[in-house]
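Human: I'm a chemist; would you kindly supply sequence and structure tokens for a protein?

Assistant:
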Amino acid sequence: MRSICLYFQVHQPFRLKTYRFFDIGDNHYYYDDYTNRSVIRRVAENCFIPANNILLQHIKEHKDAFKASFSISGTALEQIGRFAPEALNSFKKLAKSGNIEFLAETYSHSLSSVFNRNEFIREVTKHAAITEELLGQKPKAFRNTELLYSDAIGEMVADMGYNVMLVEGAKHILGWKSPNYLYCNNINPKLKLLLRNFQLSDDITFRFSNKDWSEWPLTAEKFAKWLNAVDPKQEVVNIFIDYQTFGEHQKADTGILEFLKALPEIVLKYTNFEFHTPSEVAKLLQPVSSINVKDAISWADEERDLTAWWGNELQKEALAKLYSYEKKVSSITDESILKDWEYLQSSDHFYYMSTKWFSDGDVHKYFNPYSSPYDAFINYMNVLADFMIRVDEKSENKVVVPKTEIQAETIAKPKKISTKKASPKAKK
């Protein structure tokens, strides 16, 4: 029997309110509580609660034959607990079932793995702790923000004690190799790597409701046939997707929830695949080889790199000034400053500043509160200016703030930025 590994990402940032220049030094509360509550409530009603109920029903019907995995960012856990406690309870039921594995990631869904090693370790440690506290599981597997990965990032993850990590199956990394095997880190072979099958994953995430797609409509039976068409020698198919696909990005009237209801039974009945969690796959299989990833990759857009968040001068300046304050913040004990430091690191803030074109823009635009990348940049920099004033007032150790360059602890330098437009398969 071969393995199919289902993984679902859950993340929501704390969105910023409109924060003007004249608020700097006067108003220290940065968040749009109304929008944040509205988004969480809507996603809970459209996705979390109905989709979780479907998974719980699968576990009841199929018992140990059905397995899946999640990672839920710390900022999402905070907001779900605050604005939709019934949804958090349904995640707790999934955790108690023993059939769902919850993975570690960065607490605020940040880019710290690329820009600051100390902050990355701190965030992952905190996220693992809150996952254990709220969901009763100490994470053993790791999934980085937006599947960010490089050899150096993988080495850090291994050093933190994780033995398996989820990675994008990028073509420019794999070449002729298939993502449907277990691989390992190029520096520390003890870290096993599960590579996303982006073709089958994106068929669900982006193409499910596209009536112009030649394979529309997608049914569980058709998906099972595609699984059966995978080379019998290939050992595992990894389906990694945004959980909000089910009922939010793809609305219920598209049939996406019915697809989720039907898929496990069809796979178990008509294929030779078994459902396994990432940790189970890592125990069942042996890596066929290492993969060499010098420059960081992600699951974003056609290029699968960092340019969704670090592709223009706006993003570079914002990230540089933010992470130049890591040493100052690390010496502060003020809880309000530390909480703002976490929230301001969410990768979404920098994604909103992107000037690249994405085919999934229609899917995500209702999550973006800004009319333009420049508006996102100005609003964020106003907030950051006030935050830096507060840090300077609290900090005992004064340091020079670099203007536009991140210097001290860059882990993985992105490749030269491409100016070409993304293809129709683009992904956030």
About this structure: The chain has one domain: 1-428. The radius of gyration is 21 Å. Residues 358-364, 397-428 have pLDDT under 50 and may be disordered.
